[in-house]
Each structure stands twice: as structure tokens, then as C-alpha cells.
Specification:
Elements: H1 2-17, E1 19-23, E2 26-33, E3 36-47, E4 50-59, E5 63-72, E6 77-86, H2 95-130, H3 143-187, E7 195-204, E8 208-218, E9 221-231, E10 238-248, E11 254-262, H4 290-300, E12 331-335, E13 340-344, E14 348-350, E15 357-366, E16 369-375, E17 379-389, E18 399-405, E19 408-415, E20 423-431, E21 434-440, E22 446-450, E23 453-466, E24 472-479, E25 489-495, E26 499-500, E27 506-513, E28 518-530
Parallel strand pairs: 1-4, 2-11, 9-18, 16-24
Antiparallel strand pairs: 2-3, 3-8, 4-7, 5-8, 6-7, 9-10, 10-15, 11-13, 11-14, 12-13, 16-17, 17-20, 18-19, 21-23, 22-23, 23-28, 24-27, 25-28, 26-27
Length: 537
């Protein structure tokens, strides 16, 4: 018995020496990375002297324990800090979800009342119908009594049928409302069954009230850019709306918080690469059959996408916004050592529903030079291009953009910013008022036999007409073939005023057309190759 008491006293002393202090915290700031987020919380706690456990609860269950950081404004010894899941504590639903749950409970109660009333009416009706048989020989069945009973049956049954109709209508209405409420509840996402907690074991020499700053990372959050590029005319600069789509499914709603968007990726490998010696040796080439090669080729291009953290981008994901005048909220751009951070000044509400929520990052005016472009070998259509330089200063990252010209939506496409080019070319759509035709010129297309070789000469003429009422400048590109086979010889015969790139075979003209003016662009080339061979002309 003494041993049992001693054991209990030791256990009690341990419990007392590490008393739990439940602490509430609030989200102050969230830094959203492209595939993660850092949550910053604040809490105020009164700590008596001695050793204690501070329990910060009602957190996400997806916290990266390695990322937890804790700071205080007073002297305090932190003995340990760790993350745990509490399966015994009920989850506090969001205000929106709680309102829907309360409405569902209310409608379920109303529906039960209707079902009870329907059952009572049915039982009463059955009771009346079972007792309607009258004895034909009874002395009490006078004409007056029969009339009273018939009137009673008629009146009461009529009231019952009317009440049943009313209650059935209520039942249908309540069922429809309940169905909509439950669908809306499901739309908000599944509710967590437990909460996350961060436990901080501390030791304080005195009783004190301390302000804590807590930070940690979660995985199920991220953002991606969505741009709107607008131009009213070829004489005005481009208007760039830098927007973003933010999503999170941490299990905790972010309400009225400050947001920073960072281009950093904390999930990326931070280890520098190491080059090892590259040792050459003879290898035995592998011979595949045609079917095996086909399988290998298919296997090599069987890519998979990360659908859990980032939604598949479809046209439905991107909003086409009407032109409107607004003042973008202030944003501070922080150029970090390895990333860029946009500190939004407007507070936002981001519920934990894994849906994309739009935020406005910034609005810029981009100086642009406009020109037209055509590659008539591929398509006899002119495209309007806006060329803007010094675009790196706007801290853009690759993403999809909607394009507008003269208040008209002309399409959307990826804004590819991965290259090293100084000038960014932005296509603003087709212009059908520029007509062009490309064809072979028969007079310049000839075939010669030269010994064991054959020589073909090909002439191309492209005619371009400007049907616009303004003068334009236009870049036109075409090409001649190139080869690395020494049995094939390609020679450019003529290309008036065209720049020729011998490595790619590209021909480039820069022309100016007045309203109604037409110009012809001619070039010709020859190909010499063995006459007993065929080439892919």
C-alpha cells in the first residue's frame, strides 16, 4: 500500500511540475509559397514560475514539424517544442459552416414535426374509417343520429385530408431545403475530425505574462499568377493586371489576414549539385524490335502531374474580366536573396475549401512597341505583336494571361518568361485586314540532271496587302531547308532585302506598308542531291 501511494505521489508531482496551460492564438500573417504556406500566429500567455507545457491548439493537422519557430518578448527557457494531433478535442467549425449546420439541425427538427403530424393524421383517419360501420338493427340508429354521424365523418375526414395535403407540401419543401443545405455543406469540404496542437515545454523563473510569436509551414496551400494584358490602341502602352489565384486546404479558415505571395519553393531540394568524374568506356548498343522501341518511346513520354497541390489549369479556371477602372491596392515588393515576395496591404478571407480565390497583386503600365508578324509558310495570317523591354523589373513569373485589344477579348495563352530574352513579345491576336498569299513561282521552279546528281530550283513569292486605314510595320519570316548531310547541298539563290540565318535557314524581312499598299517578297533556292535518292521536300 505504501508503494502504491508513493507511486501516485511521484506521478502527481510530475504532473504538477509540468502543468498544462491551454493557450489561444490568432493568425496575423500568411506567406503563401507556390506549393506551401507559412503561418504566423501570436498568443499571450501568463506563465507561473516553474516548468509548464503551453498547449497551442485548434491548428492545422498538416503542420511540418521541422518548420516550427517560436519567439517571445521576455526571458524564457524553452525546453522542447513538438507537434501533435489531438483526437479527443472537437473541431470548432468555421462561422459559415456552423451557420449551415445550425440551419440543417433546425430544418431536421421541423421535418420531424411534420412527420409526426402526418402520422397522427393517418392514425386518426384509420380510426374513423374502422368505426364507421353502423348496426342496421340497432335501436339507437335513428335518422337523426345517422345524419349526425354522417356529418361528423364528412367534416372530420375533409379536415384530415386537407391537413394531410398541407403537411405533405411542407414535407416536400423541407426536404428540398435540406438537400440544398447538405449540398452546400459538402461544397465547403469535409470537416476535420481532430485538431493539431503545438506543445511547448518551458521553464520560467518568475510568474510573467509573455507574448509569443509562432510560425510554421503547411503543405496544402499555394498560388499561381493570372495576368490580364490590355491595349486600347497601337499608340498606347500595355496595361498589365498582375493577379493571383490562392488556394488552401489546411483545415483552418484564414479570416481577415495579411498575405504575402512568395516565389520561393520550400519543398525544393536545397542541396547544391556535385559533379563526379565522367569516365568514358565502351558500351554494347541495345537492339530493340520495332514494338519494343515503340513501348520504350511511350514509356519515356508518360508524364504525370501533381494534382494534389495545384489544380489542373483549364479555360474555366481563368476569369475573363471586363474592362473597368480601379485603383489597385498598395503592394510592397521585397527582393529577397533567392526569391521575390509581394506584401499585399489589403486583408483577405481565404476559407479552407481548396478552391481558387482571386487576389490583386499589382497593376503596371508597360511601354510597348507594336508591330505585325507573319510566317506565311505556316499560316497566311498577320498577328499584332507588342514588344516590351525591361520586363524583368516587374518580377513576373510564367503563368497564363488573358489578352484584350480595343476592349475585346482576343484569347489567352501562357506567358512564357523562362527565356533569357531582353524583349518580351506579346501576341494580341490576328488582323484580318492584312491579306497575304504565298505560292511557288513556276518560272523559277526547275529541275536539272547533273551527272549522278539532280538539282531542283524552287522560287517562292509572298504578296502582302495592307487593307487598314493606317500605315503598318511588319516582320515576315520564311525559310529554306538546311542539312548536315554532305550528299545534300542547299544554296540560297536570291532573297532581296532578307536577313538570312545560315544555321536555321530562316529568312527575315522588315517592311512598311502604307494604307492600301501591296508588296511582293521573293526568294529562291536550289537543292542538289543524288538522283537515285529521295528527300523530304
Amino acid at each position: 500500500m505504501k508503494y502504491t501511494i508513493s507511486t501516485l505521489l511521484i506521478a502527481f508531482s510530475i504532473f504538477v511540475s509540468a502543468k498544462e496551460i491551454p493557450t489561444r492564438s490568432t493568425i496575423e500573417h500568411v506567406t503563401i509559397f507556390q506549393k506551401a504556406a507559412q503561418i504566423e500566429r501570436t498568443a499571450q500567455v501568463k506563465i507561473p514560475s516553474g516548468k509548464h507545457q503551453i498547449i497551442i491548439s485548434n491548428l492545422s493537422t498538416q503542420i511540418n514539424e521541422n518548420s516550427i519557430q517560436l519567439r517571445g518578448d521576455k526571458q524564457l527557457s524553452i525546453l522542447s517544442i513538438y507537434f501533435q494531433r489531438n483526437y479527443l478535442k472537437d473541431v470548432v467549425p468555421s462561422s459559415k459552416l456552423k451557420a449551415i449546420q445550425d440551419s440543417i439541425s433546425f430544418m431536421e427538427s421541423k421535418l420531424q414535426d411534420v412527420n409526426d403530424e402526418r402520422w397522427l393524421l393517418k392514425e386518426e383517419k384509420d380510426l374513423i374509417l374502422k368505426n364507421k360501420v353502423l348496426s342496421p338493427t340497432g335501436n339507437n340508429n335513428t335518422t337523426e343520429e345517422l345524419t349526425k354521424r354522417a356529418d361528423f365523418y364528412r367534416t372530420r375526414l375533409k379536415d384530415i385530408l386537407k391537413s394531410q395535403k398541407t403537411e405533405n407540401q411542407k414535407h416536400t419543401t423541407y426536404q428540398n431545403i435540406l438537400g440544398k443545405l447538405r449540398a452546400q455543406k459538402n461544397q465547403l469540404g469535409s470537416q476535420r475530425k481532430h485538431v493539431g496542437e503545438i506543445v511547448v515545454e518551458v521553464e520560467s523563473k518568475t510568474t510573467q505574462t509573455i507574448n509569443l510569436n509562432l510560425a510554421y509551414n503547411i503543405q496544402n496551400a499555394g498560388w499561381y499568377p493570372l495576368y490580364n494584358l490590355r491595349s486600347n490602341s497601337i499608340k498606347e502602352p500595355l496595361q498589365l493586371d498582375y493577379n493571383a489565384k490562392v488556394y488552401q486546404h489546411s483545415g483552418v479558415d484564414w479570416e481577415n489576414i495579411k498575405i504575402s505571395l512568395s516565389t520561393s519553393n520550400p519543398q525544393a531540394n536545397i542541396q547544391k549539385p556535385t559533379l563526379t568524374p565522367w569516365r568514358l568506356a565502351f558500351v554494347q548498343p541495345l537492339n530493340y524490335s520495332r514494338n519494343e522501341s515503340f513501348k520504350q518511346s511511350n514509356r519515356a513520354y508518360n508524364y504525370s502531374s501533381d494534382a494534389s497541390n495545384s489544380k489542373t489549369e483549364s479555360d474555366d479556371d481563368f476569369e475573363i474580366k471586363e474592362l473597368e477602372e480601379f485603383t489597385p491596392p498598395p503592394v510592397q515588393v521585397s527582393q529577397l536573396q533567392t526569391a521575390v515576395s509581394f506584401d499585399l496591404k489589403t486583408r483577405y478571407n481565404i476559407p479552407s475549401d481548396n478552391k481558387q480565390h482571386g487576389v490583386i497583386v499589382a497593376q503596371y503600365e508597360l511601354p510597348a512597341d507594336y508591330t505585325y508578324y507573319a510566317a506565311p509558310k505556316i499560316q497566311t495570317t498577320a498577328f499584332l505583336l507588342a514588344k516590351t523591354s525591361d520586363w524583368h523589373q516587374y518580377n513576373l513569373i510564367p503563368g497564363r494571361s488573358n489578352f484584350f485589344f480595343q476592349n475585346t477579348f482576343v484569347g489567352n495563352a501562357m506567358l512564357n518568361l523562362s527565356g533569357m530574352q531582353d524583349t518580351l513579345d506579346i501576341s494580341l491576336g490576328r488582323d484580318d485586314n492584312i491579306i497575304m498569299e504565298r505560292k511557288r513561282v513556276k518560272d523559277y521552279c526547275k529541275v536539272y540532271a547533273i551527272g549522278a546528281d539532280k538539282r531542283e530550283e524552287i522560287g517562292i513569292r509572298t504578296t502582302i496587302t495592307n487593307n487598314k486605314n493606317v500605315a503598318i510595320e511588319m516582320i515576315v519570316e520564311d525559310q529554306i531547308p538546311v542539312t548536315t548531310n554532305n550528299q545534300i547541298e542547299v544554296t540560297l539563290l536570291s532573297s532581296k532585302k532578307a536577313e538570312h540565318n545560315e544555321d536555321t535557314g530562316k529568312l527575315k524581312w522588315v517592311i512598311k506598308l502604307k494604307p492600301g499598299e501591296s508588296k511582293e517578297l521573293n526568294f529562291s533556292y536550289s537543292i542538289r542531291f543524288p538522283k537515285d535518292r529521295k528527300i523530304n521536300l
